[in-house]
From TrEMBL:
Pfam families: DNA_pol3_chi. The keyword Transmembrane does not apply. This is DNA polymerase III subunit chi. The gene is holC. One of its GO terms (biological process) is DNA replication. One of its GO terms (molecular function) is DNA binding. Keywords: Nucleotidyltransferase, Transferase. Its EC number is 2.7.7.7. It comes from the Bacteria.
Length: 151
């Protein structure tokens, strides 16, 4: 059965900032790739995708994860592929991490989806709409309040 997990970001958490959010996404990527999953990260736009890819390059060597932007990298891709709306992920991805605020219709081709409920009220409403889309598509849903600190 397909699953969708929504992580709730609290206003007073480290993840409320872009740097903290990227750190958490990187943490999730390390977790899933350690289990052998190949991931696709869907960003809002090209600029966000490039910022995230750059963040992945800035981690310590011990935390490094091979990654590439869509259209770059080796033929069969790396464990983490980063793209944005309007681009099609590689065929060999099992899990999608959605960072975009729009509807996640692309996600129906993945067995597992990770999504987020941001702090801002408008973004929360959009996340609720995505939640409904996943539910209507038959995904098993769960929500998790982020309990992660980089320090």
């Amino acid at each position: 059965m397909n699953t969708a997990t929504f992580y709730i970001i609290n206003e007073d958490s480290e993840q409320a900032s872009q740097q903290g959010w990227f750190a958490y996404v990187h943490f999730l990527c390390r977790h899933f790739t350690a289990q052998g999953a190949k991931l696709y990260i869907n960003c809002s736009d090209k600029a966000e995708a490039e910022l995230l890819a750059e963040y992945f390059w800035q981690v310590t060597p011990e935390q490094f994860i091979a990654h590439n932007l869509i259209g770059e990298g080796p033929k069969n891709g790396t464990p983490v592929e980063i793209g944005h709306e309007g681009l099609k992920p590689s065929w060999n991805r099992q899990l999608a991490i959605n960072l975009a605020n729009s509807h996640a219709t692309f996600a129906q081709s993945f067995g597992q989806v990770v999504d987020f409920v941001p702090c801002e009220e408008k973004a929360k409403q959009t996340a609720r709409e995505r939640y409904k889309i996943y539910r209507q598509a038959g995904y098993q849903l769960q929500t998790i309040e982020i309990q992660y600190s980089e320090s």
